[in-house]
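Could you show me just one protein sequence together with its fold in token form as a worked example?
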Amino acid sequence: MLTIETAARITAIIVGVGILQGSLQLLLSLKEFGSSGLFDWNSRQVTARSHGGSRGWMVGRTGLVSLRIVVVARIVCSIALIIPFQSNLLYALYATVILLSSLFLSYQIRYGKDGSNQISFIILAGLAFTFLIPPSSPFQAVGLYFIAAQAVFSYFAAGISKISNAQWRQGSALQSILNTATYGHPTAAAVLLRRPWLGGFVGWSVIVVEIIFPVALVAPPGLLVPLLFAGVMLHLATAVLIGLDTFFWAFTATFPAIIFVNGVLLAR
């Protein structure tokens, strides 16, 4: 069983690595927000109006420096979040700064959002709460409970969504996804095209793991470890084949909280 402190620190390290990777990638792409870039100010204003009116304080033509400052602050705080042997107050500060910067960037950048963004918000909020609450308080673990509950619900909702889709039930969804330009992997798509049964097997395996994942909160170690391992493999395959590497860090960062809650519930 993990302690509150250990679970929170491991979570902070994993999510910190993910935030660092994503922030470095964003820093390298900021030139696209310049006057001649793909996401220049004019195009973002059009997008803003299409989402319900003008964004009054959206970073404008000269705001590229502001974006760069925010991204650099995320990089610094994510590195600090990974470094051990600091006070809980400092860890809470790092998590809060990253959370606020995430909200700011979400407001400014309207493209490329996915489920990993939402789960990262949840993790950072839960971590900030956990690190802010004194160890003597009976409420310190609330943040970890929040992270674990949101994680298992996300898996369950994803499984229900897939089993409600005819392509997933028929086993053709994976081949279709891997055959796209955005999330494609030509080699893997060709393998599934030649072996349709493999797509069905993998697809149903994903559905089953996601639907039963909430059991991880009360599962004995003999079932908990395979469930978490299946989750790691799922996100690793998603990162390698589809390119959604942010999912790997965001969702595996919830696993220490799940292990902590599992230990508490089984101990009762």
Notes: The longest helix spans residues 4-29. The chain has a mean pLDDT of 87. The radius of gyration is 20 Å.
